[in-house]
Specification:
By secondary structure, the protein is an all-alpha fold. It has helices spanning about 1-40, 50-70, 80, 85-105, 110-115, 125-150, 175, 180-190, 200-235. Helices cover about 65% and strands about 0% of the residues.
Amino acid sequence: MFEHFRQELDEHHDRRERVIKLSRDITASSKKIKEVHTIRVPRLNEQLSADLEKDLAKRKGEMLKMFESVAADLIGINAWRYQRQISGALQEYVEALSFEHYLTTQTLISPDQASATVGGGVRLTPEDYILGIFDLVGELMRFAVTQMATYGLLPGQQESQRPGLAASGTTRSKDERRDILGDMRCLRASFESLNTRTTSNSASLAKDIEKKMEVMRTSVEKVEFATYGIILRGRERPKGWVPALTDDFGGAGPEPIASYE
């Protein structure tokens, strides 16, 4: 009898270690996909280049094999027994998947769409989907700040929407005003109205949400402050303004910078 118990415990520890190892591999691959998008995607809501699509397809294929290899250890009751071990990887995967989906379509991927991409029959729980979307806000913040520093525009804006260019008294349509900051604010409002008491695993979910809520709010605020900075600089700097950096440039000074006005 005790030999049987020992065998069961050994099998349990072996399965747990396999799930943890593959969870780390999936997490690392998901981070690489996010890095590729942040570096190589030039604009929001544009078709990816052929080379980038090929690179991403290869990475996704590798992740699909990882899910398929771990699926056997997550069948039946084991799906819940090792949920905490695979949960972090699923959240990271949802974050990477939803980030790519948003960059190319400027829409939020649905739970059904995300679940359909998880290979091997591994179950994507509603909790993991929600927590992954929480993390998405941080990726959107990094992408938005990088794009503003590079192009001087909030992702989703057109050149005609550059701060200071709109004629006095003119209004823009709802579609023209839609940018990444507006989408992030919508996500923030939705998260803040989230009722965790309606889920069966509410205690654990509420604890995780509490940790991520403040980080999510900070990410939105960073994009807001960056946007305010662009607007204020565009309105306050006169035409031909140049920074006072003559000494740093060896006396030559930088090229004149045109105002947004």
